[in-house]
Amino acid sequence: MDQPLVTVFIPLYNCEAYIQDALKSIIHQTYTNLEILIIDDGSTDNSVNIVNSYTDSRIRLIKNRSNKGIPYTRNVGLEESNGEYMAIMDADDISYVTRIEKQVDFMENNLNIDAIGSYYNIFGGRFNKVMKPKSITSEEIKAGLVLLNRIANPTSFIRLETLRKYGIRYNSAYFVAQDYDMWVQISKVGNLFILPEVLLKYRTGHSNITKKSKADKVIQRKQINDSIHEDILSFYNFNLTEEELSIFNEFFNDNYHSKISDNTLIRLPSLLASLEEYNRRNKLFNEDLFSEVIRDTVLVILNRRKIDLRHKVHLYNKVCKVRSNRSTTKDLSYMVPKHIYNLLFS
After folding, report:
1. What is the tens place of the pLDDT at every residue in 121-154?
2. Same domain? 341 vs 258
3. Angle, nearest 10°, between helix axes 70-80 and 178-189?
4. Are residues 119 and 133 in contact, defined by beta-carbon separation less than 8 angstroms?
5. In the chain, at which residue ranges do the beta strands (DSSP E only) sit?
6. What's the whole-model pTM score?
7. Residue 200 and residue 126 share a domain
8. Are 147 and 252 in contact (CB under 8 A)?
9. Do residues 44 and 193 share a domain?
């Protein structure tokens, strides 16, 4: 096979029920100058046999000698990629047929962008929903990464030259959130973007490693996210006290089933105001943009976390409320039914 422009990287572990659909979605892409790099991490089911049943010469299967974990496997993927770009694809997801073509076209015409994601469709669980991240430009994503992850990993497409130039790899100690850390490291040296098109079907509602890690290793997961926060906050010189950092990490936590202490709910508005003032003085991000990213992120968390409704409304009025009465009515008319639904079904 000629030197491929794109490596589609699929980490594989016990995914016999879904790997066929994932592979077919890549084999039949409208863009063909690619290799399909599959790293098997010690599967014990029929996954490897299914991959071996395909005769497409673009497929390259590498097997770890034993189960090494996802950070190790992702780094093997980086080392083994022959393309100039890496498209990441989970073994249980499905790429739309024009995904690679559209991502290649964008990256070839935007040489200042180092990594991109896209909109995506969640399917397979109780809900089918199109996810359209609000932050899509490089500055919006960089500002948002201070708070939470912004790019869905299986939608991503990375310029490998950037990773090699700066020695960026997945953190081998992070059994979760390696992607969040990857985007943070890229954001320090380059630019990110989200294509405002739905290019992937993201499967939920089944047993997988990520869900199990959330259930079994909640404390370690939070410690990893805290570490990533500390890294990005330090990079921008947001010098938080130990107590402020604890408040920040407790609220901006991706475990949406965890509770938030009264102290954090009380102190959070003043902490966020301090962050906005620091940004204004030091001109890290556009002032209005940074404030909007904070408001939007807080609103998302308020709608997902186990917080008393009285506190939710109080925080909304302190942090999220905007000048438009129409926007306020819309936000609150969503927040209250969502809160009741979570009480009934969570």
Report:
1. 999 877 789 999 999 999 999 999 999 999 999 9
2. yes
3. 50
4. yes
5. 6-12, 34-40, 59-63, 85-88, 94-95, 115-123, 129-131, 157-159, 192-203
6. 0.93
7. yes
8. yes
9. yes
